[in-house]
Design brief:
Layout: H1 2-23, H2 29-40, H3 45-64, H4 71-93, H5 99-121, H6 129-141, H7 145-162, H8 169-200, H9 203-209
Helix pairs in contact: 1-4, 1-5, 2-3, 2-7, 3-4, 3-6, 5-8, 6-7, 7-8
């Protein structure tokens, strides 16, 4: 059941990412970097998700002084496929032209990203390398998700500017609100996950634990 929530969280997350890209108001700095690389260098957005993930797995390994978390590649691969899939589908159904529609599309995407990220993170199964970095920095700096997430966003913002990624007002909103939204959904999704997993456990497991 936990793995079902893991896949569901990734699908929700990638749907939100694709909505922000389709809004054309600017994406998160990390996604802007992926789109910028896709446009200027080649390959799909999802492909760059996997490539950057390989680099970040190495960085995370150095920060934690542990062996590389190879399972993170599986998560990055699923995420990359999800992004490309949603972008393909949304290209036919979600192409906002009016300013207000773009704002609504981006706003929904931003909230969906936070919810999907929080949901899959609580499964504690191979986080996307950038999300693992968020958790690592949170522990190293002894702060909260909001601070570590915002710091990472600022670093990727600089890199996205270098590769001419889709930077806009949406990017600024993501930097300011992305960590806050994730921080809000973390306890909410934890309650949902705990409640569902407890009620889905076989009665024998409960009696054995007693």
């Amino acid at each position: 059941m936990k793995y079902a929530f893991f896949v569901l969280g990734i699908l929700i997350l990638t749907f939100g990412i694709s909505l922000t890209i389709q809004s054309e108001l600017g994406t998160s700095p990390f996604d802007a970097l992926l789109v910028g690389l896709s446009i200027n260098v080649g390959l799909t957005v999802g492909s760059w998700e996997v490539i950057i993930a390989i680099i970040m797995i190495g960085c995370n390994s150095l920060l934690k002084r542990q062996r590389p978390e190879v399972l993170g590649l599986l998560t990055a691969f699923i995420t990359g496929v999800g992004i490309d899939m949603w972008l393909f589908l949304l290209h036919f159904f979600v192409t906002p032209e009016l300013w207000i529609n773009k704002v609504v599309c981006f706003g929904i995407g931003l909230v969906v990203i936070g919810f999907g990220t929080a949901l899959y993170l609580h499964t504690n199964f191979a986080p996307i390398p950038v999300d693992r970095l968020t958790l690592i920095l949170q522990k190293l700096t002894r702060t909260n998700i909001f601070f570590s997430r915002t710091f990472i966003y600022l670093v990727f913002l600089i890199m996205a500017l270098i590769f001419n990624g889709p930077i806009g007002v949406g990017t600024l909103l993501t930097v300011c609100l992305g960590g806050l939204i994730l921080n809000y959904f973390m306890p909410v999704t934890k309650k949902i996950l705990d409640h569902t997993l407890i009620h889905s456990s076989p009665p024998n497991d409960k009696s054995h634990s007693m």
